[in-house]
Every structure is written in structure tokens, then in C-alpha cells.
Design a protein that fits this description.
Keywords: Aminotransferase, Pyridoxal phosphate, Transferase
Number of domains: 2
Structural class: alpha/beta
Pfam family, one: DegT_DnrJ_EryC1
Organism: Flavobacterium lacisediminis
Number of strands: 11
Protein name: dTDP-4-amino-4,6-dideoxygalactose transaminase
Helix content: 25-40%
Bound molecules: pyridoxal-5'-phosphate
EC number: 2.6.1.59
Mean pLDDT: 97
Radius of gyration: 21 Å
Distance between the termini: 21 Å
Strand order of the largest sheet: 1-9-8-5-4-2-3
Largest sheet: 7 strands, mixed
CATH architecture of the largest domain: 3-Layer(aba) Sandwich
CATH superfamily of the largest domain: Type I PLP-dependent aspartate aminotransferase-like (Major domain)
Length: 375
């Protein structure tokens, strides 16, 4: 059986968890949490990193930090996970969906400006499959209209964007805020887990307060105040040291994990090229401004029928590819709540995108042979 995903363990996870447990400090913000946060800050140029219990929670923190209120509008792609939208809907925002690009599920940055109104508060680009959105265009719009940019970088660890000025920046280091996921389906994992990145320093103090249930506990432990109390809204957003210990074992192996995933990705790409062409299937395209972190290998099939056929054929061999999002603009919950209902490119990805198995220990040749033999 070849599953869609199999979480990869580096071997040190249980050892570090044992260390965390034996240290007697197993709640959040201990040594492993700080090691992980420092790793991200120093390797990716993030101003401040805070581990969270999930990317969903990091997005919710972002919505609180930029003071989203009833009636505010937030622009995002429709081809994304529910959490991207829920975080803002929970605070009363109305979601305005931008269409995907023709050749990639990422939102088409050239279509954003037409969606901006006096109520627009933020743009939330989702770097689908770890491939950068056009952040030059998005950041220019944010400056022009005084908007916040929250990157949904859930899938985008160790991926980069090169701007017009030639500088290469890590995804998650560009927007005012960014959210990452360490869910077991992502490249680097901790079971459930995530991270909020704060690049605009005006948000750092308040982010720590919201993270610590609305208290100034972090300042207290640094000795900046002599007692701590309730100073703002907040929730329980920080993970335990057990989760951070697991994540640390993964981070120590990040380079190797990324190397293996990239090799697998390239193997799919090279060995499926002719087959894809013959069958009018598009392989993933990486824009010149983006890098590939090999989070995902997807096919854009020529029709929903072709996709169903491929899924059935692979399943008959016990290999399990999966399609992805049912676009949010056509979801039962939000269908009647938004204005711009026509998103043709998004609909195409909903119907035709197929994700192939991609994980560290994948027997890729078997999957490739199965695909090449489909009649
Ligand atoms: C995985 C994912 C999320 C949610 O991440 P969790 O850590 O499971 O909350 C949000 N947005 C996108 C684009 C994702 O891929």
C-alpha cells in the first residue's frame, strides 16, 4: 500500500521528548520552544517567531493582532484551507475571494486591486504547495492602500521569493505577519503544531500577550514587570514543550528532509514529463520569482473525468493520490455570504488538481510505473 502521506521521524523525537519530560518543565515556552524559535529567526530572517498549537491558531492570533472587526473585508484566494478564512470570519470579517492564476492555484496578484474597497483591512496570500505568490505586487498594494499582509505560509517552510530588486527573501519574512503549520502532512512536523511570525515590530509585545492567554506573563518571566495579570484578550495558543521537543528533532534534520523531498519532486517531474504531455496533463509550474520547497507534487488534469480515472486506476493498485480543496466560495457555509462568486480558474483547480504521494520514504518508482501504465 502506498498512502498519500507518511509522517517521517528522524529518530531523535522520543529522546528529546524524554529530555523535556525529565527536565520537569513540560508546559510551554521552555528551552525547546526557544531553541525552535531562535532557529527560525536566525535561518529565515523572521523578526520574531512564536510557536503555536497549529497554523489555524497562528492565523487566529494574526486576525486579533490586526484588530479585525465586524464588517472589515479581507482578500484571500478561494482555493485554500478553511482555516485561512475562519480565522478572520471568527472576528466578524467578510471574505473577498480573489481568483487563482491560470497555471497555479496561487491567487492572481493582478486581480487584487479591483477587489480593494474602503473596508479592506488585509490581504492574505496563501503560498500554495510552498510556491511564492507575487509578493512584490501584494506588498506594493498594501503600501498604497495601507493594508496588512498576513502570509498563510502553512506549506511554505524553507521556500523563497526573489523580488524585482533581486533580494531573495524567505516566505514568511515578507508580510507584516505570517503563519506556518507543522501538521503531520507538512514537510516539517510535530503532529499538530504551528508558528506565528511577526515581521512588523509594533506587534511583538501584544503577540506575546495574546499567546499567553491575554496576560503579560512573558514580560514577567523576563523580569520586566514584578507581577503579571490580565491585560488584553488572548487564548491558549502556545504548545507544550513536548511538542517543541518533537519539532526540534525535525529542525535538526531540515536540510536532509528538504534534500530528499526535492529529489523525489524532480524525479516525478522528469519521469512524468512525456506521459503528461501525451495525456494533456499539466505538471506544476514554478514562476521565476519563486523557489520550490517540494511540499507537494500535483497534476492539473484535463478534466474531472480524467482525474477520477487516474484516481481509480491507482487505487486499484493500492496507491492513494488525493485531490484537494473544495473552493471556499462554493462551500455550503460561505456560498451565500460573499459577492464575487465567479472564479473560473479556482473552479478548474477544484475539479482537476490531483496530488501524488510525496513523503521521505516513498517508493516513487512504483507510483511512476503505475501512472505510466494507465490506459
Ligand atoms: C495545513 C494548512 C493550514 C492549517 O494548518 P494547521 O496547522 O493544521 O492548523 C492552513 N492553511 C493552509 C494553506 C494549510 O495548508
Amino acid at each position: 500500500m502506498i498512502p498519500f502521506n507518511k509522517p517521517y521521524l528522524t529518530g531523535k523525537e522520543t529522546q528529546y521528548i524524554e529530555e523535556a519530560v525529565k527536565s520537569g518543565k513540560i508546559s510551554g515556552n521552555g528551552i525547546f520552544t526557544q531553541k525552535c524559535q531562535q532557529f527560525f529567526e536566525s535561518n529565515y530572517g523572521f523578526k520574531k517567531a512564536l510557536l503555536t498549537t497549529s497554523c489555524t491558531d497562528a492565523l487566529e492570533m494574526a486576525a486579533i493582532l490586526i484588530n479585525i472587526k465586524e464588517g472589515d473585508e479581507v482578500i484571500m484566494p478561494s482555493y485554500t484551507f478553511v482555516s485561512t478564512a475562519n480565522a478572520f470570519v471568527l472576528r466578524g470579517a467578510k471574505i473577498v475571494f480573489a481568483d487563482s492564476m491560470m497555471n497555479h492555484p496561487n491567487m492572481d496578484a493582478t486581480k487584487i486591486e479591483a477587489l480593494i474597497t474602503s473596508k479592506t483591512k488585509a490581504i492574505v496570500p496563501v503560498h500554495y504547495a510552498g510556491v511564492a505568490c507575487d509578493m512584490d505586487v501584494i506588498m506594493d498594494l498594501a503600501r498604497k492602500y495601507d493594508l496588512f499582509v498576513v502570509e498563510d505560509a502553512a506549506q511554505a517552510i524553507d521556500s523563497y521569493f526573489t523580488g524585482k530588486d533581486g533580494t531573495k527573501k524567505a516566505l514568511g519574512s515578507i508580510g507584516h505577519l505570517a503563519a506556518f503549520s507543522f501538521h503531520e502532512t507538512k514537510n516539517i512536523i510535530s503532529g499538530e503544531g504551528g508558528m506565528l511570525v511577526i515581521n512588523d515590530k509594533q506587534f511583538i509585545n501584544r503577540a506575546e500577550i495574546i499567546w499567553e492567554k491575554g496576560t503579560n506573563r512573558s514580560s514577567f518571566f523576563r523580569g520586566e514587570v514584578d507581577k503579571y495579570g490580565w491585560v488584553d484578550i488572548g487564548s491558549s495558543f502556545l504548545p507544550s514543550e513536548i511538542v517543541a521537543a518533537f519539532l526540534w528533532a525535525q529542525l535538526e534534520n531540515l536540510e536532509n528532509i528538504q534534500k530528499v523531498r526535492n529529489q523525489l519532486w524532480r524525479e516525478y517531474y522528469l519521469k512524468l514529463a512525456d506521459w503528461a504531455k501525451e495525456n494533456e496533463i499539466e505538471l506544476p509550474q514554478i514562476p521565476s520569482y519563486a523557489t520550490n520547497n517540494a511540499h507537494m507534487f500535483f497534476l492539473k488534469c484535463k478534466s474531472i473525468e480524467q482525474r477520477t480515472h487516474i484516481i481509480n486506476k491507482l487505487k486499484s493498485k493500492d496507491t492513494h493520490p488525493v485531490f484537494h480543496y473544495i473552493s471556499l466560495h462554493s462551500s455550503p457555509f460561505y456560498l451565500d455570504k460573499h459577492d464575487n462568486r465567479v472564479l473560473p480558474n479556482t473552479d478548474v483547480f477544484t475539479n482537476t488538481l490531483l496530488r501524488l504521494p510525496l513523503f521521505y520514504e516513498l517508493d516513487i518508482q512504483t507510483v511512476i510505473n503505475q501512472l505510466l501504465n494507465i490506459k
